[in-house]
Structure formats: structure tokens, C-alpha cells
Amino acid sequence: MVGDPERRRRARHLGPERRRPLILDAALEVFSANGFAGTTMQSVADAAGVTKPVVYDSFANRDELLLALLAREEQHLVVSIVAALPADPSVGTPEEHVLEGLTAFLTAVSEQPQSWRIVFGAQYGAAPVVAERVRAARAFLVESLRLTLLQSLPGVADPDANLPILAELLASMTESCARMLVVDGTDRSPAELAKTVSQVVAGGFGNV
């Protein structure tokens, strides 16, 4: 990978702390193109236009590099998740919340494909500590959905009985739609995917 010439020039002349963001930029490109197995310290060094020892000056090993990259990209994803949740879940129906929120969320996903590729890809073949970081990010999504559903359905007699299940199912469908957009490829738009999901889950919400 050739990498950006200006970034390569700057990376060669910066100290480790200032160089880290540039190396992470290069790592994101490499990981997005080649996955976990194809992301090596050498391939990242090549993409950043520096020598491998320079990369090791910033990150002790590949797992540390990937964890730092996940932490950075997760910040983008958390912002997307929070922005997609309804400001007032008590206004409107759960189906409307799913349609509007998922459309906003999947639109953000389509605009940040590299961030999502690393989250999906890091689940496969990564060290346990990296995979655990990915699971924690997904747990945050499920809990956010559960709380939103709870506020959307104030009349539910026993919310703990069914809402966690619905939240998990909705999180799985959300994840599948995001994967279709950034990994598998689809000719469906974020709005079309969101509409399909909202129609599927509407019956489930109505029977809680």
C-alpha cells in the first residue's frame, strides 16, 4: 500500500506520541483492506512510509496497535449510536423509533465504512483481549437499545422479561445490516434496510 505521501513525510519526522495518530491512520487502511491476518507491523510501516522499528517505538506489538485503533474508532461509533437514539423515546411508537433511528445509524455506518470494518473484522482471528473489546462495544449497543425500548413502552408490566431479548434481536439485525453495507455489499440503501427491519420487529413490539 502506497499511503498518503504527505502523511508519510510527516510521520518520518515526528516523535512517537505525535506519530501515533498517523500510524493508526495507516493501520486503519491496512486492516480495512487486508483484515486482521494481513495487518502486520511491517505492512503498517509500509503504509505509513516509515521503518518497522519506528512503528514499534509507538506500539509494542500488533495487539496493542489494534487495541488503540479499536479504541479510537469506537469513539466514532459510539457517537453514531447515541445520535441515532431518539431524544424522547416516549414520543412516537417503537416502530417509528426503529425506522428513524436505524436509518440515521446505518447512514452513519455507510459514511464510516472503515471504522465498522475493523470492529467486524477484529472479531475473527484476533487475540482474546481484542475480541473482548469488540464484545464490550456491542454490549453497549444492546443496553442502549434496551433502555430506549423500555422508555418507548411505558405500559409493559414486566420489562425485564422481554425487552432484553428484543434489544438483543434488534442489535443482531442492526449489526447484520451494517455488515451488509460495509462488508458484504448491497444495493439496498440505509433507509431501505431500516424500513425492512422496522416492519419485521413491529409485530414483536406490539406483542410485548
TrEMBL record:
<feature type="DNA-binding region" description="H-T-H motif">
    <location>
        <begin position="40"/>
        <end position="59"/>
    </location>
</feature>
<dbReference type="InterPro" id="IPR009057">
    <property type="entry name" value="Homeodomain-like_sf"/>
</dbReference>
<dbReference type="InterPro" id="IPR001647">
    <property type="entry name" value="HTH_TetR"/>
</dbReference>
<dbReference type="Pfam" id="PF21943">
    <property type="entry name" value="TetR_C_46"/>
</dbReference>
<keyword id="KW-0805">Transcription regulation</keyword>
<dbReference type="InterPro" id="IPR054129">
    <property type="entry name" value="DesT_TetR_C"/>
</dbReference>
<dbReference type="GO" id="GO:0000976">
    <property type="term" value="F:transcription cis-regulatory region binding"/>
</dbReference>
<keyword id="KW-0804">Transcription</keyword>
<feature type="domain" description="HTH tetR-type">
    <location>
        <begin position="17"/>
        <end position="77"/>
    </location>
</feature>
<protein>
    <submittedName>
        <fullName>TetR/AcrR family transcriptional regulator</fullName>
    </submittedName>
</protein>
<dbReference type="InterPro" id="IPR050109">
    <property type="entry name" value="HTH-type_TetR-like_transc_reg"/>
</dbReference>
<dbReference type="Pfam" id="PF00440">
    <property type="entry name" value="TetR_N"/>
</dbReference>
<keyword id="KW-0238">DNA-binding</keyword>
<dbReference type="GO" id="GO:0003700">
    <property type="term" value="F:DNA-binding transcription factor activity"/>
</dbReference>
<dbReference type="InterPro" id="IPR036271">
    <property type="entry name" value="Tet_transcr_reg_TetR-rel_C_sf"/>
</dbReference>
